[in-house]
Amino acid sequence: MKKLKRSARLADMMQYLIRRPHLLIPLTLFKERYQAAKSSISEDLQIIKETMEMSGLGELLTVPGAAGGVKYIPAVDLKQMRDWVEELRTGLEDPDRILPGGYLYMSDYLSQPQVVNQIGQIFSSQFRHAGLDYVITVETKGIPLAYATSQYLNVPFVIVRRDHRVTEGSVVSINYVSGSTKRIQTMSLARRSMKANSKVLIVDDFMKAGGTIRGMMDLLQEFEAEVAGACVFVESLATAEKLVENVYSLLRLCDVDIKNKTISMQLGSIFDDQ
Prior knowledge:
Layout: H1 6-18, H2 27-34, H3 38-55, E1 58-63, E2 69-74, H4 78-92, E3 98-99, E4 103-104, H5 113-126, E5 134-138, H6 143-153, E6 157-160, E7 171-177, E8 184-190, E9 199-207, H7 211-221, E10 226-236, E11 248-257, E12 262-267
Parallel strand pairs: 5-6, 5-9, 9-10, 10-11
Antiparallel strand pairs: 1-2, 3-4, 7-8, 11-12
Helix pairs in contact: 1-3, 5-6
C-alpha cells in the first residue's frame, strides 16, 4: 500500500480493525502496511480507541509484549440502543401481525440486514469477554441472528437440524419435549460441526416455554460443551413455567388479544438493569 496521509490512514486503519473483531493484530502489520513509524501508529491507535469509545462502537484493547498487538472488541451502549429497540417494539405491536392461533409475524424484521446486524451486535456485546468458541442455533428462523452474532464475535456458527442430512455425515440426535406443544421432537447435530469441550452461545428468534433451548442444551452435553448463555429476539411471557432460566431477550411479548386485535410488548431482559 502506498504511503497515506494521516487522515486516510486513520480511516483505513479503523475499517481494518472493524472488519476483524476479536483478532489480535500486531503493530508491525500496521507499520509495514502504512510505511509509518511505530510511534505514529501508536498515536493513531489511541485516536481510534478514543473515537470508538466516544461513538459506542466498542473497545480497542492493547496487548503488550513481543507477541502483542491490538484487538477490536465490538460493543454497544444499551442506553443508546433503547430508542432503537423501542421502535422495533412499536412496529411489532401492529395488529396486522397477528396470525391464526395467536402467533406473531416477525419474518420481515429477520430478513432486514440492518435489523439483524444490530441485534447480533447487541447479543455479542453481552458475551464479548466470555471466550466463546461457537454460536449455535436451530433451523431456520434463528439462523440470520446466529450468523450476525457470530460475525461480531468472530467465531463459527453452528446449525442444529430437525432432521438428519446425509451431507453432514454422522450426527448426534436427541429427543426433546417442546415446551409449548408438549410434543416429542427430534434435533440433531453433526459430529464434525463442533469440537469437544467448547464454550458456546445459544441464539434463537423466539422463546415461549424454552423447550427448544433446553433441547439444545441437552444436545450440547453430548459434545461436553459449556453453554455460556442464551439470547432470543422475543421472549413470550404467556407461559409461566419456563424450562430454562437467565435467557437474554431483546423484547418480551406480554399478550396477543385475538378478539380485540391488540399486541402488548415490552423491552426484554437485556434492559432490566439499564
